[in-house]
Amino acid sequence: MVQIEVSQETFDVEVNDQLVAASYRTADVERVLLSLLDEAARLERERSARMAASHPAASASEAEGSSRSAAGLQQQRFSANAKEPDPAAARTIVFLAAPPGAGKSTLAAVLERLAQSQPGMPRVQAVGMDGFHHTNTYLDRHTLDCPDGKSVSLRSIKGAPETFDVEGLARALHETRVSSDSVQWPAYSRVAHDVVADGPIVSAPIVIVEGNYLLLDEGPWRDLAELCDLSIFVEADEAMLRERLVARKVRGGLSRTEAERFFEQSDGKNVRRILAHRCPADITITLDSSGRMRRLEATPALAFFDIDGTLTWAKEGEADIDAAPTDAVGLALENLVARGNLAVLCTGRPLCNVPPALKTLPFAGMVTLAGGHVELDGEVVRDVGMPSDVVELLVSCCEQARVPAYFESSNRGVVLAWPGVFSLFDTFGEFSERLGIEELRGVLAGIDVGKVVFDSEHIERLTTMAPAITERCSVCNIGDGLYEVTVPGITKFDGMRSVWSALRERGVRIGTVYGFGDSENDWSMLSAVDVAVAMGNALPAVRASADYVTDPVWDDGVATALEAFGLV
């Protein structure tokens, strides 16, 4: 059985003067974080183009950067409340706002780091608004009048909106936005617990400003929104934020009781205030208790569908290549796409073995060969195979143990057969190429093998005899008595990443991502989506790990789920 893991990417970044290892789901990096950078980069290139048009002597590189983005300009508008561009702007300002505990400082630092690895991405710099706290001296000298008629020292509520120099922040934002020179910002020292003047020097063309109150819908904070080009809000459940903030104080040395008391007296009030009173953001990201991210406003939905056991099943007397979904499922898929959503096949089958009945349905793309081969709108965006030494290892082991196997490339499948040795492949009529060992080696020399399939009757004997197979390969149960062998880098998730990347390049936004599957080789797909759907006939481990369990494949399970989600 495959080990169920969620692919993660880790970034070593400095947050609040401390080096931290920030981990995000690879799926969230691909779908959410990179899309944020794309949006900021688009705005910056538009700004550069306006600058070049108004100043003929402007650099050619800026004009070139703008032309590269022109194709996506008509396809994307980030919100209905988008502001008119400022003709005087010399930089692109991005607000990243969130309540305490949502991880905004870390996210801003990661976005800065991630931008460095993206070819053609304008430079990004992240700065915080904490340097615009009023000084401790100021806080000690001033009070706040409360609704009950009492006055409290600002020092006692440090961190609340009233304890910040909003006017100073507005001046710094304006100067940063319109000045072509570098601008120095103040900073907040976590050692002195006070403001220091020698903060970061802001010089990048894209500046991400992170802070709790940047989108607070209270004067004078609400006026700040006019000073940014793109606003992002990270939304999270109060209970989750409470647990995060309490745990943070416990790590800092407080007892659990003391930490909970502090939350109720300070952080909790600020969390509730921000969640209840905020200006609309151009982009809203939700953060759930497991750390998964989702862009709320992005559409359309994107759904990935396994074939065997999900869209079709083995019917008695029917050739596997002739498999077809039920009429109800076919209609549901057509309605899904007709409503503006995207559907993509995501199967372990090679492209040549995708049933013709499925190719007539409106799939935008196909992830085939367990992620080794990917096509989007008929264009090949990924085609990778197993290393030749791994293929030879499998062939040699099959030869020693006289084990049948099915070797698959994107456009060809070949069965290794042995006289007198029965396998499930003997019952599958579409496997017309049945070769002996020497013929097989000749064929394999001319194709890129993406994966190898074994009969369950033989797989244990094979892997016991050759432990190197399980050391170098992933072996997973795909149902119907078959096991699939692939290598790292060839998974359904790797194929999905290629789809997301291609959609990003085309300027296509995606919203909620769904995955439908039933077996072990579907887990890499199901672990990367927003909503993981297991068929009623799925393996027990898959059903237990899913967000939603629908009816079995033969009872229109896909159609049932799509209707339940309001997608058809």
Task: Write a brief caption for the model.
This protein is α/β, with parallel strands linked by helices and 568 residues long. 35% of the residues lie in helices and 22% in strands.
Reconstruct the topology from this structure:
Elements: E1 8-15, E2 18-25, H1 26-54, H2 60-73, E3 92-97, H3 104-116, E4 124-128, H4 136-141, E5 143-145, E6 151-153, H5 166-178, E7 183-184, E8 187-189, E9 194-196, E10 201-202, E11 206-211, E12 230-236, H6 238-251, H7 256-276, E13 283-287, E14 293-295, E15 302-305, H8 327-338, E16 342-346, H9 356-359, E17 365-368, E18 373-376, E19 379-383, H10 388-401, E20 405-408, E21 413-416, E22 434-435, H11 437-444, E23 451-455, H12 456-465, H13 467-472, E24 474-479, E25 482-486, H14 492-505, E26 513-517, H15 523-526, E27 531-534, H16 540-545, E28 548-549, H17 557-564
Parallel strand pairs: 3-11, 3-12, 4-11, 12-13, 15-16, 15-26, 16-17, 21-22, 26-27, 27-28
Antiparallel strand pairs: 1-2, 5-6, 7-10, 8-9, 13-14, 17-18, 18-19, 20-21, 20-23, 23-25, 24-25
Helix pairs in contact: 1-2, 1-14, 6-7, 8-17
Could you walk me through the main structural features you see in this protein, from its secondary elements to its overall organization?
This protein is α/β, with parallel strands linked by helices and 568 residues long. It has three domains: 8-129 and 163-241 and 271-295, Rossmann fold (3-Layer(aba) Sandwich); 302-384 and 491-564, 3-Layer(aba) Sandwich (Rossmann fold); 388-486, Hypothetical Protein, Haloacid Dehalogenase-like Hydrolase, Chain: A, domain 2. The radius of gyration is 28 Å and the shape is elongated. Helices cover 35% and strands 22% of the residues.
